[in-house]
Design a protein that fits this description.
It is a single chain. The longest helix has 35 residues, at 23-57. Helix 2 (23-57) packs antiparallel against helix 4. The protein is built from 7 helices and no strands. The radius of gyration is 24 Å and the shape is elongated. Residues 160-167 have low confidence and may be disordered. It has helices at residues 3-14, 23-57, 70-77, 80-98, 108-128, 131-142, 147-156. It is mainly alpha-helical. It has one domain (46-167).
Length: 167
């Protein structure tokens, strides 16, 4: 740094135009951003997994082959609350990624495609594991009422053979 810039900065600091911040504030901000990014990615993975499980358990993809009002049935059956939550978390992910250094002077669309691809990969891995079925079985047997989770897995995701109201 040249002397003129140093002098100019010191004058601004003395005049209280620039306030100095402690180092721990920068560290705390960095840790908060990293934690927020990790939490957002994990929540998005599990939400997308729940969406895939909903589609499979209610037979929505199979219903595309039958009937005249195929798309109308599909659109009426989708869990829009879950879709809106996924979109909201994707927007939060977008905002958090913009705060990081690795997104600076790089094509942002490629970074988002990489993150979304990673999220989709891990959510399909969880989807093909036995996680959803064991979670549903545990929620049914334990009689615990976890506000959104119990309603979603027990009441809204009905397996075709188990659901009496399926028509």
């Amino acid at each position: 740094m040249s002397n003129s810039i140093k002098k100019e900065l010191m004058q601004k600091i003395r005049k209280d135009e620039i306030s100095m911040r402690a180092r721990w504030l920068f560290v705390a901000e960095r840790l908060g951003l990293q934690g927020g990014l990790a939490l957002t990615i994990i929540v998005l993975i599990f939400l997308l997994n729940a969406f895939l499980y909903y589609i499979k358990s209610n037979g929505l993809l199979m219903s595309l082959h039958f009937g005249d009002s195929i798309w109308q049935n599909l659109l009426h059956s989708l869990p829009y609350d879950l879709i809106l939550i996924i979109i909201a978390f994707a927007i939060v992910l977008n905002i958090v990624i913009k705060k990081f250094d690795f997104s600076y002077k790089r094509p942002f669309i490629l970074i988002m495609i990489a993150f979304i691809g990673t999220i989709m990969f891990f959510s399909t891995l969880i989807f093909y594991s036995n996680f959803n079925h064991s979670l549903r079985r545990n929620l049914e047997q334990s009689m615990m009422d976890i506000p959104f989770l119990t309603d979603f897995y027990v009441n809204r995701c009905c397996m075709r053979s188990m659901c009496q109201n399926f028509k």
